[in-house]
Design goal:
The protein is α/β, with parallel strands linked by helices. Helices cover 41% and strands 17% of the residues. The protein contains 22 helices and 18 strands. The strands form 5 sheets. It has a 6-stranded mixed sheet with strand order 13-14-15-16-18-17. A 5-stranded parallel sheet has the order 2-3-4-1-5. Strand 17 and strand 18 form a beta hairpin.
């Protein structure tokens, strides 16, 4: 078994370890004070005796996966789990002997003759080549059940997770089957309503008192909007809290859903997010591509193409990206490289989403141009400043958001990121094909920004939405077609059989 340091598992010797753990200290002092939703999804299965198996968790770097793991460990200890029954390893570094940490060896090193369940948390497993195969072999050999193990494996991307899902299919055990969300989980940046809950107690108290958070309540509101009606619950929120929500959305367009950025932004006076954190987030995304055999320099140049302000939330052509000159074979400049693999990396790290147009209702046309969405505003600003050598990212972010045209495009990307997660919110299914959840629609009259397709009670539901984040009356002269939901900056009204609704109110549904 690899050497284990007290530094990685301090609870074994120090009952007060949580007071000095960097992740928990930052969480406990955070302006957010909001436990991730996955904490509640995972907590009960982890505490339930006899539910052994493997759970995978992916999400962007610095989004809080390690903090989630430490919160779960603290919860287990506070509920009486023995301190020697919990082990944590980060696989992005070697053991004390300089050797890579093998998941199989760590499982083999778990004593089989202890009382109670055992817990193994493997952080950043993507850094260990073949991790899924080793977990599969451990399961097939009976080591998971024999050692009464609950394994939680986290990673930053899913380029290898798709292979892992295939290898682990039928081998993730009862703990995976007990989860409504399935055994392969996503931890995305905090959604706008999660930030509202944390930072606006008056609104949070109202939403709690009126049971607004219940998925069936919010889905009913979505159906009312589609039918051309204004839900009374949303009208009340608009009448009483719109200015507060709008200000919170303006802030969200700067700090996004990264907990550390939100904390810095709300604690510093004047408001600020450190240049170092912008740099860290961007650099980790770029440099981590080496783990899947990609070149950071080439990725950086493709990112520079994708985050051009005019390209965000608009269609783009891979052929046009041939102007992206990268370092090819033997270090020579080249316009030819495996663009699709780089785009897949950006997609599976939950950094970008590339939406297809509909071929017919709820069926994407894979032959047509895609739209370019960045899935978090803070990530956009971090990447933009990284590839353009901008020294003051925060100042640049506030300058860009002050441009109404750019602000409308980044709001459309924020809407896209929330719509993508809506299938999990309204009805849990084990696996989601996001390209069939969110598309856009071309019509004879133009284009609708979003075609949202959800499964609910074995019925396919389709919603057509358009983002018009503007106060310009000329943008609303045309009466929208019946059933369309038009997302605006500040208008909340009926137009014939369609509804115009402000983005800051609409996003509360997700």
């Amino acid at each position: 078994m690899p050497n284990q340091s007290d530094q990685d598992n301090p609870w074994r010797t120090d009952p007060d370890w949580g007071e000095s753990d960097p992740s928990l200290k930052e969480f406990d002092k955070s302006a957010l004070g909001y436990k991730p939703r996955l904490f509640f999804h995972l907590g009960e299965p982890l505490m339930s005796r006899g539910l052994y198996g493997i759970v995978t968790l992916r999400g962007p770097r610095r989004i809080g996966k390690t903090t989630l793991v430490k919160l779960l460990i603290r919860e287990l200890l506070e509920n009486g789990v023995g301190r020697n029954s919990i082990r944590y390893y980060s696989l992005d570094r070697n053991d004390t002997g300089g050797h890579p940490l093998s998941p199989l060896r760590l499982i083999e090193g778990t004593p089989a003759d202890t009382d109670g369940d055992n817990f193994l948390f493997l952080d950043e497993v993507s850094f260990y080549d073949g991790w899924a195969t080793e977990l599969k072999n451990a399961f097939d050999a009976g080591l998971i059940d024999n050692r009464r193990l609950k394994v939680v494996a986290t990673g930053s991307h899913s380029m290898d997770l798709s292979e892992a899902v295939s290898k682990l299919r039928g081998r993730q055990g009862p703990i995976s089957e007990s989860l409504n969300l399935g055994g392969n989980l996503l931890q995305a940046p905090l959604r706008f309503p999660e930030v509202v809950d944390s930072l606006q107690p008056e609104i949070q108290e109202h939403l709690t008192r009126t049971w607004f958070r219940k998925p069936k309540t919010r889905f009913a509101c979505l159906l009312q909007l589609k039918s051309g009606e204004i839900p009374p619950s949303l009208e009340y929120i608009y009448d009483n809290y719109f200015q507060l929500l709008n200000g919170t959305l303006d802030d969200y367009l700067v700090h996004g859903g990264y907990p550390h950025a939100i904390d810095e932004f709300n604690k510093k006076s004047p408001r600020q997010v450190s240049a170092n954190f912008y740099s860290t987030v961007a650099e980790l995304l770029i440099s981590d591509c080496r783990t899947v055999g990609l070149e950071p320099e080439n990725l950086s140049r493709l990112v520079q193409f994708l985050i051009e302000p005019m390209r965000i939330s608009n269609e783009f052509s891979l052929r046009a990206s041939e102007q992206v000159i990268v370092r090819g074979e033997e270090g020579l400049p080249s316009g030819r490289f495996e663009k699709r693999r780089y785009l897949d990396y950006l997609r599976t790290t939950w950094s970008f989403f590339f939406a297809y147009p509909e071929e017919r209702p709820c069926v994407p046309n894979y032959q047509e141009l895609q739209k370019d969405y960045v899935l978090d505003p803070f990530l956009y600003h971090a990447l933009y400043c990284r590839v353009n050598n901008i020294a003051d990212p925060f100042r640049n972010a506030t300058r860009m958001i002050a441009d109404p045209a750019f602000k409308g495009r980044i709001v459309e990307s924020v809407i896209a990121s929330h719509l993508l997660l809506s299938q999990f919110l309204f009805e849990h299914i084990p696996s989601v094909d996001y390209e069939r959840v969110l598309m856009f629609q071309r019509t004879s009259a133009g284009e609708n920004d979003f075609a949202l397709c959800l499964s609910k009670n074995n019925t396919r539901r389709r919603f057509v939405l358009e983002s018009k984040f503007s106060s310009n009356p000329a943008h609303f002269n045309r009466i929208p077609e019946a059933g369309k939901i038009v997302i605006t900056k500040d208008k909340f009204e009926r137009r014939e059989n369609a509804v115009l609704i402000p983005a800051s109110v609409f996003l509360l549904l997700f």
